[in-house]
Structures are given as structure tokens and as C-alpha cells.
Specification:
This protein is of the alpha+beta class and 283 residues long. The protein is built from eight helices and 16 strands. The two termini are 25 Å apart.
Length: 283
């Protein structure tokens, strides 16, 4: 499963996601460093996306699949969300239905400065515990006109009602500093990961991101991830340009500039605006 936490209000959007991947059948740990988090900036706003359910299909992390499919045309926030839903319905839903695995993409967005909360999921809420999944993904979204919205999605055996109620209550408040809410989400992730069920499905390590109403700058931080095998970068698509691999290349290079480094950078820049779908029908 996994865990993601979201707060959306008029002062900002905060999101937190853990990194654990487990085998659905055996419960065995597969990876504790999968990033389930994507930021995308559009002409009309910006959004943070996290997901829970399936973390990886084959060798492809869904965060990489999302950023690669969003490359190319400059899309609005709404168009980007619709593209994710369409691709997920075509490329992901059939497999998840066979596995009877409920999956949800959770999105907090500012569109023209107005806060929105969106869910893209392959199940109806009343069917979650019975694991009845749809043959498609559906979008459910609304503008946040009240004080705020906070919600949790992840392993239901690890999440308690006080966890949910506490996040909902605090979501309507303005923090003294944006870092206060980020720190709160980190603490909540650690606490849920320490439960008997959470120790199996949720990593205590996580990543948090915050965006203000203007969409920039994004403030992301990795927590308890010092043993990660590679540089940690939140996948990011800005106006159709996927800057993720460019950032990864720069962070992995610690020595003086060389011809090989420049070549790697040029290759990453060429890929940045070329759409790719490694889960699509022609993969």
C-alpha cells in the first residue's frame, strides 16, 4: 500500500508521501526509496500529486510514468489531470482490477490562485474495504471555498480515526510558518509507520512538499532518507518540460565538469520535452 497525507487551504498546499514498496502477495519489502510524489507547473497554476495503492508496475515507478507522460505540450492543470486519468484508465486500471487493488492519485492544486482538491481513483468509496475495483479511473474534485481540507489515504489497518480527525481539524488553520505543517505531516507519517500494520507497508522515511498560492517556489524536503542509494529529487514538470533527469544528473555529478557530464546533460535536456509512456500499448 503506502501512505500519503494532504492539506489544502487558501494559504498553501502541503503533501507528504512515504517511500515503501511491498509485494502484494507475500508482504515482502521490495524497495524503501520509491518516490511517490510529483509536482507540475502549468500556465494557469500548479499542483502536487501523491499516490497510494500501486507504487511500481514492472520496473516503472508511477511517479516516473506520470512525469514522462506529462512532457511536451503546455497543458493547464485541468488538462494535465485529465491526461493522467485517461492514461491510468488505459494503462493501469486493467492490471489493478485483476489484482483487486484500490489506487488513488491525490492532488492539491492552485488554479488561478484558487485552491482545489482532486482525487483520481479506480474504486468507489463504499467499495474500498471489499476491494471492488473499477475498470477505469474516475476524477472527483472540488474547489476549497471553506477553511481547508485535510485527508489521509493508505493502509486502513494503520490509520486511526484520531489521525483523520486531527488532520481535518488543523487543515483549516493558518500555520505560523509553512514548515510547521510540513513537520506535522512528517510526525504523522512516522507515527502511522510505527503501528503494527504500518511497519509492514509504510516507511518512516518520507518526502514533504509545500507550494504557496502562487505555485512557486516549491519547498521539498526528504526526511530520514540518508541511506538512499541515489540523489533524491522530487519529479517535476514545468510547462511541459520534465526537469527531473536534468536535476538528477547535476546532483549525481560531484567532480569538475567533463565531456561525459556535458553529454549526459545534453541527453537529459533533449529528453525533457519528449513524451514517453513506458506503460502504454506500445511499450
Amino acid at each position: 500500500m503506502t501512505l500519503n497525507l494532504t492539506i489544502v487551504n487558501k494559504w498553501g498546499i502541503w503533501q507528504c508521501s512515504d517511500h515503501r514498496l511491498t509485494n502484494l502477495v507475500t508482504g515482502k519489502l521490495i524497495d524503501d526509496f520509491s518516490i511517490k510524489h510529483v509536482f507540475f507547473r502549468c500556465p494557469d497554476g500548479a499542483a502536487l500529486l501523491a499516490y497510494a495503492g500501486a507504487g511500481r508496475i514492472g520496473s516503472v515507478d508511477l511517479s516516473d510514468w506520470i512525469r514522462e507522460t506529462l512532457r511536451g505540450p503546455r497543458r493547464t492543470v485541468g488538462q494535465s489531470i485529465e491526461l493522467i486519468r485517461e492514461n491510468a484508465s488505459r494503462d493501469v486500471a486493467p492490471l489493478l482490477r485483476k489484482l483487486r487493488l484500490c489506487h488513488m492519485f491525490t492532488i492539491g492544486a492552485f488554479v488561478a490562485g484558487r485552491p482545489w482538491a482532486v482525487q483520481i481513483k479506480n474504486y468507489r468509496s463504499e467499495d474500498f474495504f471489499s476491494r471492488i475495483t473499477l475498470d477505469r479511473f474516475e476524477t472527483h474534485g472540488r474547489e476549497i471555498t471553506e477553511s481547508g481540507l485535510g485527508f489521509i489515504f493508505g493502509d486502513p489497518r494503520a490509520i486511526t480515526r484520531p489521525d483523520i480527525d486531527g488532520l481535518v481539524t488543523i487543515s483549516g488553520r493558518k500555520p505560523r510558518s509553512p514548515k510547521d505543517f510540513s513537520n506535522l505531516l512528517v510526525s504523522l507519517n512516522r507515527r502511522i509507520a510505527a503501528t503494527p500494520a504500518g511497519r509492514v507497508t509504510i516507511s518512516p522515511s518520507c518526502v514533504t512538499s509545500y507550494i504557496p498560492p502562487g505555485g512557486l517556489p516549491i519547498d521539498s524536503k526528504f526526511h530520514d532518507s540518508s541511506s538512499a542509494p541515489s540523489p533524491r529529487v522530487v519529479p517535476m514538470v514545468v510547462m511541459g518540460v520534465d526537469v527531473t533527469e536534468i536535476m538528477r544528473t547535476m546532483m549525481s555529478h560531484t567532480g569538475p565538469s567533463s565531456a561525459s557530464f556535458q553529454q549526459e546533460q545534453e541527453q537529459a535536456m533533449r529528453r525533457a520535452a519528449v513524451p514517453r509512456n513506458r506503460l502504454g500499448p506500445h511499450r
